[in-house]
Structures are given as C-alpha cells and as structure tokens.
Design goal:
By secondary structure, this protein is α/β, with parallel strands linked by helices. Among the domains are: 46-132 and 249-325, Rossmann fold (3-Layer(aba) Sandwich), CATH 3.40.50; 142-225, 2-Layer Sandwich (Penicillin-binding protein 1b fold), CATH 3.30.2060.10. 37% of the residues lie in helices and 15% in strands. The chain has helices at 2-19, 35-48, 61-74, 98-113, 124-128, 152-161, 248-253, 259-262, 274-294, 304-307, 311-319, 346-360; strands spanning 54-58, 81-83, 119-123, 142-144, 165-166, 175-179, 182-185, 194-199, 202-209, 216-219, 223-225, 267-270, 323-325. The strands form 3 sheets. The protein has a 6-stranded mixed β-sheet, covered by helices on one side. The protein has a 5-stranded parallel β-sheet with strand order 2-3-1-12-13. A two-stranded antiparallel ribbon has the order 4-11. Strand 2 (81-83), helix 4 and strand 3 (119-123) form a beta-alpha-beta unit. Helix 2 (35-48) crosses helix 3 (61-74). It is globular.
C-alpha cells in the first residue's frame, strides 16, 4: 500500500511539474506569453545548460531589459546581463554614448573573465557588431578599496585610457571630475556616481552620492571602474576618445572578434522574429554605407564586413551553437493575464483573478498510515 501511494505521489508531482512553464521546451512556449513565464523558462534553460550558459536573442531591446529585471529578481545570483546595441546609426552621425559603450564594455569584460556560466540577453542588432578581442579587457579595470595606495595621476591616466570625459560636474555615466583630493566618477556601467577621497597617497573613503544634490548616499567597501568605451588604450591617447567610431575597433586593435567568440558553447534561444531583424539591420547598414560613400567621405571608411557580421558569418556563428526558438503561435489561454488597469475596478478584478487561480490550482491530499 505504501509503495502504491509513493508511486502515485511521484506521478502527481511529475504532472504538476509538466504544468509549469519551466518544463516547457522553447518551441512549446509562445513568444507572446507573459514575460514572467518566458523569464521562468529562460532561467530553467540557463540552469540546465551547465557551464555552457545561455544567450537569448530578443525581438527588442526593451523586451530584453524587462526580462533582465524579472530574471534578476527571480535569481539574483544568475548574473544575468543585457548587451545593448550602439545608440547611433551605422555610418551616420556621432559615435555612441559613453553610457551605452560602457554597458557593452562591462558585459564583454565580464564575459571574458568567464567566472560563471554566461546568462546573456541581447538583440540581433547588438550581436551583429564585431567586438574587441577578449584579451584587451585584462588591464581595462581599476578596483579601488579604502586604505589602498592611489594617486591622482593613476586615476587620471586610467580615465583617459578607457574613454571617460573630464567635466566640472559629473552628471552622466562615463564622466569624471578631478578636484584635488576628491575624485568624482560615474562608472560607465553603473546606476549612480561614486566619490573617491584620498590623502597622502591613500584612499580615505569611497562613497556613492546623488548627482543632483551632491549628498553622500552611502559608504562603499569597493569600487570597480570599468571602461566607458570598447576602445582601450595602452597609454593616454593623443586624440579625444570622442573621435572613436564603429570602424575604430578593427583599426585600433588590428583585428576584431564576435560576441560568439566570448560564449563559444552557450545554448541559444531566439524570438521567432530574429531572422527578419537580422536581414533588416544588415540592409540598413548597407544603405548607410552607400550613402556615406556617395558623399565622397571614404578616406577612413571601413566596409560593413569589417564592422559587422554578414548573413553567412551570422549563420555560421549560430550553426555552431545549440539553437531553439520560441513559438510564433498564440499563447495558451491559461497563460494569459487580464489587463486589470482597464477594468472598472482594477483591485476587485485582480482579487478575483487570484482567487480563481487558487481555486483552479491542483491540490494533492496525502493520507498517512500509522
């Protein structure tokens, strides 16, 4: 009798697990499903990938950011990262902002270290761009701790080598201000600026502060300064970092890499619109290149294949990875969540929805035996 009950428990447990989105294969999960369900499925896929890690190709950067926030809340230890694309159009206009360049540099640097299985969210556009070789990130970080020896010259040289802009007042990521024994820096990949106070060659205090009020918001035990650019100089550059363009990466290093070189064994899950987004972005790149050539400004103009993957190299990169796609079909009805804000009484509608879910949830009753 006990064996029968135990077997029945296992059957019920397996059935309950199959109901959850975490047990769904990517092709069984609709790309239109609630982001929470997709996040749970991605988290399960990342865990099952072992040391290989996971790359999710999102149909939009906004979607990737939202998924990243959900995943970080579900599993803070996962170290999930979002790789943005440059916020400037190919062959057109100014270079990318230091904030976006810094975020990209931060992600690439952490991937190059490889301390944990990679968990990366990106778009086709952000993955198509060629990136610096992995080895350049070894000396592209400055770690600061209270009590450690430091000099203003050391900090100034690091900031100049890694693309920071010196400003009277720090307001945006990638900016810094040197004011004697006080150094204000807004780390490129951070959410807030930090203040470094030093005296007699040693750091006295590290703190975060509000850039609007300039008031300290908390003390810090360690500050990690990462590059504000994907171009790292071995010495202080003679030209402003603002002169960097997409073509500068290959020109500066003499070679380039791809994102897939950083995650050679990662599993890949993609939104169903990925292929069309690749084609659309490559077409936009081609049009930008031809328009730039038509102006006669071709002195330092690199061809698209020097800066971006083409369709063949993209297909080859994906072909070396285990690939799956979310389903383009509509999500299952039980996965849909009503838009409570559109109801006459959102609170009542939400309460009723929760009560219905509790009432319909599977229940298991086990009878013990003495």
């Amino acid at each position: 009798m006990k064996r029968a009950v135990s077997a029945r428990r296992k059957q019920l447990g397996a059935k309950a697990r199959r109901r959850g989105p975490q047990s769904l294969a990517p092709q069984e999960l609709s790309s239109a499903a609630p982001l929470g369900a997709i996040a749970v499925a991605l988290l399960a896929a990342w865990k099952s990938s072992g040391r290989r890690g996971l790359l999710f190709l999102s149909e939009s950067e906004r979607r990737a950011e939202h998924l990243g926030s959900i995943l970080n809340a579900l599993e803070p230890a996962s170290g999930v990262m979002v790789l943005p694309r440059w916020d400037s159009l190919p062959y057109d206009g100014p270079p990318p902002s230091r904030e976006v360049s810094g975020r990209r540099a931060s992600v690439l640097r952490r991937l190059s270290v490889g301390e944990s299985p990679p968990f990366l969210l990106a778009t086709a556009e952000s993955c198509l761009q060629r990136v610096p070789p992995k080895h350049v990130w070894k000396e592209a970080v400055l770690e600061l701790r209270p009590g450690m020896p430091i000099s203003e010259q050391l900090i100034a040289e690091f900031l100049a080598r890694t693309g920071y802009a010196l400003e009277p007042r720090v307001e945006m990521p990638g900016e810094a201000s040197l004011r004697g024994q006080v150094v204000d820096v807004f780390p490129a990949g951070a959410l807030a600026p930090v203040r470094v106070e030093h005296e007699n060659g040693r750091i006295n205090q590290l703190s975060s502060y509000d850039p609007d009020t300039q008031r300290t918001t908390g003390e810090l035990k360690v500050v990690v300064l990462e590059p504000a650019s994907e171009i790292i100089h071995s010495a202080v550059p003679q030209i402003p970092q603002d002169a960097a363009t997409a073509s500068s990466i290959a020109q500066h290093y003499g070679t380039s890499a791809t994102l897939f070189d950083y995650i050679p064994k990662a599993h890949v899950i993609a939104d169903p619109t990925t292929a069309s987004r690749v084609s659309g972005w490559l077409q936009q790149i081609k049009e930008g290149y031809e328009a730039r050539r038509a102006t006669g400004d071709c002195v330092s103009l690199e061809p698209p294949t020097s800066i971006f993957l083409d369709e063949l190299s993209w297909a080859a990169a994906l072909g070396s990875h285990k690939l799956a796609s979310l389903s383009p079909s509509a999500p299952a009805p039980q996965m849909l969540v009503p838009k409570f804000a559109l109801e006459p009484s959102p609170t009542r509608a939400f309460r009723g929805f929760i009560q219905q879910q509790i009432a319909e949830a599977p229940r298991f009753t086990y009878r013990g035996h003495r």
